[in-house]
């Protein structure tokens, strides 16, 4: 069982004196290969209500990864603090702003937060191995993660894109309406890059070789473009592209299939989405989230026929939300959004190539986090699901045809 020190203190932040902590049980929720930046536990907390009747509260506990390689890679000492502040400060700020504009419960696509800490040391400024974040157990609320080897159908994709546009537009509208509050409560949390260190030369070389080797014969001519894009990752990390200022917003920065949970009706039609894992949020361009999500997480058969339609759909929802929040939409034309994509596509291409390998690693073949070494991270070629190859080749072909590389 996971040992979560002083869990009762965190729970008291949420319940106050209305419930008394008694005990808890915890077990690991996800298998190897399903999450890299943290440890996720299912926790059942036994509490007593004001009538001293027992109640079980089911939550998720998110803890730092046990492997120092992963902790360094995901900059856990900073990103864990950042995620706690996203729940404690950013989301409430945007919700309060939207409510002033007549839109209650604006951000309703994230789990409820029960509390968190970066350390047992109250003077700590960085997260350590005692950091923990307690969130709603979305599985108990009827949400599930879809198969990462397949991705989302068209209807589900549109639900997710609408919520993505709400997140981006909500922060943009707040920035323009309340610049001082935005700087204090949101921008100040995002001054540094979440992921400071680029992939090492060793990992980049493994990625380049394995990606080029997986190309279909008709795409082999693009090998130099792939090598160029992945070679430049280090430069992109040091000097990332900057958004047109009107588009600058909070981005999730890791919005792929495993960080999205869906609630379905009894006919398996998606009715609601929840986004999770806000560790690597940054201030950047919304097109980073848009491109990563589409090319890693939408069913390939859907993506082949709908890239332009989905880009247009997202833009329409962005404009609609900005208008609902009483924001001038004239600086946010579709043409301007396409300019953003041209600026960010080469950087995001490398991100996408890495993540489609993560998404298509065969289940059950990834090492435990505590055992991982650098060369295990991109996914060995023999461990890749058959769906990796057509998706990789579509991404390469589509980016080249669109002039994004």
Give an account of the 3D structure.
This is Ecdysteroid kinase-like family. One of its GO terms (molecular function) is kinase activity. Keywords: Kinase, Transferase. By secondary structure, the chain is α+β, with helices and mostly antiparallel strands. It has one domain. It contains 12 helices and 10 strands. The chain has helices spanning 7-15, 68-73, 76-100, 154-177, 179-185, 201-213, 223-231, 233-238, 286-297, 300-324, 334-359, 388-401; strands at 20-28, 39-48, 54-63, 113-117, 132-136, 143-144, 249-251, 260-264, 270-275, 282-284. The strands form 3 sheets. A 5-stranded antiparallel sheet has the order 1-2-3-5-4, with helices on both faces. Strands 6-8-9 form a 3-stranded antiparallel sheet, with helices on one face. Strand 2 (39-48) and strand 3 (54-63) form a beta hairpin. It is globular and about 70 Å long. The model is unreliable at 367-372 (pLDDT under 50).
Query: What is the total number of structural domains?
Result: 1
The low-pLDDT segments are 367-372
Structural class: alpha+beta
Mean pLDDT: 90
C-alpha Rg, in Å? 21 Å
Bin the strand percentage. Answer: 5-15%
**Spatial gap, N to C terminus:** 48 Å
**Count of helical stretches:** 12
Strand order of the largest sheet: 1-2-3-5-4
Give the biggest beta sheet.
5 strands, antiparallel
Q: How many strand units? A: 10
Shape: globular
Fraction of residues in H or I helices: 40-55%
How do the helices and strands follow one another from N- to C-terminus? HEEEHHEEEHHHHHEEEEHHHH
């Amino acid at each position: 069982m996971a040992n979560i020190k002083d869990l009762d203190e965190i729970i008291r932040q949420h319940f106050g004196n209305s419930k008394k902590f008694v005990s808890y049980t915890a077990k690991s929720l996800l298998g190897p290969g399903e999450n890299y930046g943290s440890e996720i536990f299912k926790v059942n907390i036994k509490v007593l209500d004001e009538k001293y009747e027992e109640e079980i509260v089911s939550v998720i506990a998110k803890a730092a990864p046990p492997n120092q390689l992963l902790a360094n890679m995901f900059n856990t000492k900073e990103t864990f603090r950042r995620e706690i502040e996203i729940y404690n400060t950013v989301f409430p700020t945007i919700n309060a702003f939207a409510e002033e504009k007549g839109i209650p419960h604006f951000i309703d696509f994230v789990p409820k937060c029960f509390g968190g800490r970066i350390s047992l040391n109250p003077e700590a400024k960085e997260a350590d191995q005692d950091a923990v974040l307690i969130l709603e157990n979305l599985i108990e609320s009827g949400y599930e993660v879809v198969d990462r080897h397949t991705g989302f159908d068209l209807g589900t994709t549109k639900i997710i894109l609408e919520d993505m546009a709400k997140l981006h537009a909500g922060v943009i509208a707040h920035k323009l309406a309340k610049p001082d509050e935005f700087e204090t409560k949101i921008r100040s949390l995002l001054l540094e890059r979440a992921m400071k260190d680029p992939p090492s030369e060793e990992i980049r070389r493994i990625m380049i070789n394995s990606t080029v080797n997986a190309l279909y014969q008709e795409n082999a001519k693009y090998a130099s473009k792939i090598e160029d894009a992945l070679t430049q990752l280090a430069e992109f990390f040091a000097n990332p592209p900057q958004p047109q200022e009107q588009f600058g917003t909070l981005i999730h920065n890791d919005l792929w299939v495993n960080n999205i949970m869906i609630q379905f009706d009894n006919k398996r039609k998606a009715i609601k989405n929840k986004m999770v894992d806000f560790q690597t949020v940054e201030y950047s361009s919304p097109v980073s989230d848009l491109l990563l999500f589409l090319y890693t997480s939408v069913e390939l058969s859907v993506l082949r026929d709908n890239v332009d339609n989905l880009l247009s759909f997202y833009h329409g929802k962005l404009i609609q939300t900005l208008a609902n929040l009483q924001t001038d939409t004239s600086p946010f034309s579709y043409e301007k959004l396409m300019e953003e994509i041209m600026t960010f596509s080469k950087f995001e291409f490398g991100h996408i190539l890495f993540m489609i390998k993560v998404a298509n690693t065969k289940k059950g073949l990834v090492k435990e986090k505590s055992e991982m070494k650098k060369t295990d991270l991109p996914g060995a070629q023999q461990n890749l699901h058959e769906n990796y190859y057509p998706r990789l080749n579509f991404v390469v072909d589509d980016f080249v045809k669109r002039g994004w590389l």
